[in-house]
Amino acid sequence: MLHTTNVMPWSIWLEMWWFWPVVLIAFGVNLIVGTRAPFMAAILVLVLFVGSVGVAFAMTKVGGGSDLVSTFSEALSDVERADVDISFGAGTLELTSLPINSPSLVEASFFGRRAQTTVSRQGNRADIGFAMARWGLFHGSTDVLWQVEFARVTRLNLDVEGGAAHMELDLRNLQVSSLDVNVGAAEVKIFLPQSAGKVDADIGGGAAAITVVVPDGVAARIVKSSGFSLIDIDTNRFPKFGDVYESPGCAGAENRVDLTLSIGAAQVTVR
Questions:
Q1: Quick one: average pLDDT of 122-134?
Q2: Distance CA 85, CA 95 (A)
Q3: How far is it, in rounded angstroms, from Cα 175 to Cα 161?
Q4: Cys staple from 224: which of 7, 113, 243, 261, with CB 3.0 to 4.6 Å?
């Protein structure tokens, strides 16, 4: 609730890892005090928890997490298709398109924490990976920001994973063939491509707030498989037929997206 009401940032979970000993302390307090004074034990455990969250929140306000730590670029050359894997932990991820006629296939800036990057090329195809180092979850960095831009002319297969993150994926000017997004406790906004032909998109999430924007002129077929989720789909644009939401004339549309929502306890909006 504190996340979704913008009281606390998602990056607080980076600092909460430091307070794992509090679990042991709370267990000890309950063991010693709980049998004789359960109400007092409950108060002490609550104070420990609130204190830990408060200190973690204060820690997100200090440090050099906003500093540019590294950049990355890869020349476009003759690459026509690229498979892209992005594994992101906590912080903010912004993904968008490069300017028209850019000589680069991808350009990225990493603030607060660098990415482990991998690139392999074979003929006119490329495999690109950006991964957040696992050890970073246990270090006190704050305000992680990754900004990643791709060429507009290359066909992309995007696979994005995230944890306690804020993500904005602006794909409107990109040629995306497939999109696979899987997130945890994240806030995600996705703008789908506006002229990429047929796009296959699969979006999964846990305790997340996800907004998917289908550009005007793009048809969509939407299938949902959800647990305890609140899903709001614009039925004026995507009328419901049984368990499927589908734009009129979707099957023959030049630009269309087949969207599958595999959601747990999340709030999802499609418009």
A1: 90
A2: 12
A3: 20
A4: 261
